[in-house]
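thought: fold this chain, then report.
action: predict
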Amino acid sequence: MLAAFEDYQSMPQSLSAQDMALLHRDIITEVGEDPDALELYTQLIVAATRYISFRSNWLLWTREQKMEQDPGRTSCHDSVIVRFNQLARYLQSQGKAAAWRDTLGYEEEDRYFRKRIGDFACYLAFVNSLLAR
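observation:
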């Protein structure tokens, strides 16, 4: 199925490219040069990079491949959420607002927030891959 970014933007709880860039800037600003925050951010990027592999292949896989890969995808997505939560909690413990975490939302409030968090993880992996140029 061919789709464009505009198709994504019409989905529930989607983020605009500008919103993702602003959230990312907020995270980077709060992390700063703090070595513990940098380590947590690195762990988040590692998890996001693993997750984007599942996401980017999803539309290419057969139904059987999706069924086979789904437990790993779900586990990886859970790991991404844990990493976001760990980074936010740490930053808050250091007196930072970590308002970006609330902006991403919580899956307990709306099931689409889980997807939104995964979307943003893919954005982080995308940006990280561009920066590796």
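thought: worth noting. The chain has a mean pLDDT of 95.
final: tokens above.
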